[in-house]
Amino acid sequence: MARVKRGVTAHRRHKRLLNAAEGRRGTRSKLVKPAREALLHALAYATRDRKQRKRQLRELWIIRINAAARERGVTYGALIAGLRKAEVSLDRKILADLAVRDAATFGQIVEVARGA
C-alpha cells in the first residue's frame, strides 16, 4: 500500500484557519492553535450576541415608547394595556418607529389606548 503524506491537506486546513483569524492581535493571527482558539471563541460570541441583539432592540423600543407616551401623560404599561383592550395589534417595533418619526399618529394611538 502506498504511503499517504498529509502535508498538503493539513497546510490547506491551517491556511484557511489563519485566513479566518486575520486581523487578530499577536500570535492569534500567526499560529494555528491560538488562532483556532480565537476563532472558536469568536463564533461562540457571535451566536450569543445574535440572541442579545434581539433583547437589546426590544429594550430600546420599550424605552422610546415609554418616553413618548409619558410626554402625552400615560405610562408605557398603561399604553400597552389600553392597546390590548382596544384590540390594536401593533408591535413594539412599529410603535417605537411611530413615536420617533410620526408623533401625530402616535398621539392618536395613545388616545385610542386611553379610551379603551
Question: Looking at this structure, what is the CATH superfamily?
Answer: Ribosomal protein L20, C-terminal domain
Overall tally of structural domains? 1
Order of helices and strands: HHHHH
Structural class, please?
mainly alpha
| Secondary structure tally, helices | 5
Plain-language structure description:
- This protein has 116 residues and is mainly alpha-helical.
- The protein has one domain (7-115): c-terminal domain of poly(a) binding protein (Orthogonal Bundle), CATH 1.10.1900.
- It has 5 helices and no strands.
- Helix 1 (7-20) runs parallel beside helix 2 (32-71), helix 2 packs across helix 4 and helix 4 (92-101) packs across helix 5.
